[in-house]
Amino acid sequence: MPKSRIRKKADFTPPPTAKATDIRLSNRNWVAPVMLAMFLVGLAWIVLYYVTGGDLPVEALGSWNIAVGFGFIAAGFGFSTQWK
Fold it and tell me: Cα–Cα distance between 65 and 72 in angstroms, integer?
């Protein structure tokens, strides 16, 4: 009885790689420095308020100086969402 032909499997060929496309990000080099500046200004505002016993930065605001400091910090977090 004759032997049947053995089918040869094709060698593995990897799938073609997709051509890398350039992702165009907007130029937001200013976001990181502004974000860090907001963090530092907020921290400095709160520290200055506590160190001076409420006389600085704005005496008329009283305890609201803490809210202003945290407002600067919150603005820094707001800028952090724009960082790419």
Answer: 11
Predicted confidence at residue 25, as pLDDT, reads 63
Give the number of other Cβ atoms within 10 Å of residue 40's Cβ.
13
C-alpha distances out from residue 5 to 2, 8, 11, Å? 9, 9, 18
pLDDT tens-digit map of 11-65: 778 788 877 776 666 778 889 999 999 999 999 999 999 999 888 888 888 889 9
Give Cβ neighbours of residue 75 (< 8 Å, ≥ 6 apart).
Answer: 38, 42
Task: Look up tokens 């969402």; give the residue.
Answer: 81
Element housing 79 (H / E) = helix 64-80
Q: Which run of H or of E encompasses 35?
A: helix 31-51
What gap in Å lies between CA 43 and CA 67, rounded to an integer? 11
